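#structure-requests
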Amino acid sequence: GHFDIVCLQEVWVAGEEYMQRLKELVSPRYHMAVLQRPRGKRDGVATLVSRHFGEISHVSTEDFRDAGSRVSLVVHVRRHGGASSCDAAGGAAAAGGGESGAITVVVCNTHLTFPHHEFDRRMR
């Protein structure tokens, strides 16, 4: 299948070989933005945007500064082809673009806390 936007969590960002292989696999079809979790965490999040769907025009990040080392990756996608089929973005927020009917889709990808221990349950 083909997906326009893919949000991944638990991506092994610190693994150089893993990240190189991931980039090789996805780069022919997708643009990719990646964010590693802070404070020594070796994983993170990645957002993939189909080259057919659009281009990443802006990326911002947020560190929630909590005990779970959660982060968010906000990716602005300049949509190819104007408004047609933009509704297929499935829950993504769309904003008017300006020139020639361009549309920007904003996607937020966050690393959620999984309740491994009682502490995690209380933190949630």
